[in-house]
Write a structure and sequence with these properties.
With 417 residues, the chain is α/β, with parallel strands linked by helices. The protein is 35% helix and 24% strand. Strand 1 (6-10), helix 1 and strand 2 (29-33) form a beta-alpha-beta unit. Helix 1 (15-25) packs parallel to helix 9 (306-323).
Length: 417
Amino acid sequence: MTHTRTALVVGGGIAGPVTAMALQKAGIEATVYEAHHDTADTVGGGLSIAPNGLNALGVLDADQVVQQIGEPMTAMVLQSWTGKRLGEFGSPPELPTMQFVWRPDLYRALYAETTRRGIQITHGRRLVDVTETAEAVTAHFADGTSASADVLVGADGLRSATRSLIAPDAPGPRYTGLISFGAQLARTGLASTGGKMHMVFGRRAFFGYQILDDGSGGWFVNLPHRTPMTTAEARRTTAEQWLAVLREAFAVDRAPALELLLRTEPADLLIVGPMEDLPTVPTWSRGRSVLVGDAAHAPSSSSGQGASLAIESAVQLARCLRDLPYAEAFTAYERLRRTRVEKTIAMGARSNRDKAAGPLGRMLRDLLMPVAMKFVKPEKFAWQFDYRIDWDQPVPAAGSPVPAERVGSEQLARRRV
């Protein structure tokens, strides 16, 4: 049985609150420490919570939190800039329906659920150092305060301060060659897309949009930009200037991109910034400290799996700490997660290359993708979407085999056939 009774969770975004709830379910008292002095409920664009993310939240009886604020995404329709339909795919019908959410809404909902469960979230605590003894780990914050517990979990995102302390030689985020924008519109002037997200490989940029039954909706753009640009640098260009750039990029595309961009006011434009990923972090833990979510594994947003993978990892980490001493738990957790998350990161990187394709690449993609999509079966996506965590199954001790992943019984039956 584990001897872990208390935990410090560094980071109060998406992964941090979910980690704290998972630890609480495992019988571990967790406190969340967030660097920002205020809540971050106005930050971020749209994202999807995949069926596997909903299943992981279901382990915590928290999946309804997302379903209450999300819009169902029953499928994704792929199109070329000429209007040609390239294909359509969705998650297997027996799984929960993917949800599209706006990050501020998701943040607020998870924050409220975490505090409702009696978990403390403390603001204004920016991590600067970690020390430990044989009995505890201590987090030291920039304001001079500190806190101690049995373990420390770094859930502080892509530019994790915890990661820099655990693995100072780990590579930093990798720029994908794309800058991301988005907007939420109360009136789009377009007909409903019937729960489907449309993805347009534009002539000069990538455009995604979904229109709801009431005529509202949202869009996002991935704009190729060869020179790396930080978020701060991107935001030095005004929203009016970026909208002009985006409207020009989609001026000749046979898709509603230009119409939606013309309906977007500068005040509503979200300049999300550079799309980045984190292909591999060699070390996920050191001593009593461990990483979770984007701090350990960050796919680009093209994967559609960033938040869902973070949720999965939070639940698996808590399960390991429930059953094993912390050192063994961290080893088992990494063995359970690394192969799956790095495969997803690589998948997102391939999508980014398609979005930033040149003239020849666009021509080949538009010719070959419809043929390839005809042979895509739902089972192809099972490894992503039908990942399930058996909370009640004990985590094997060191030296015992630990499965890298688990899919649902229906997919296993298909494999046997």
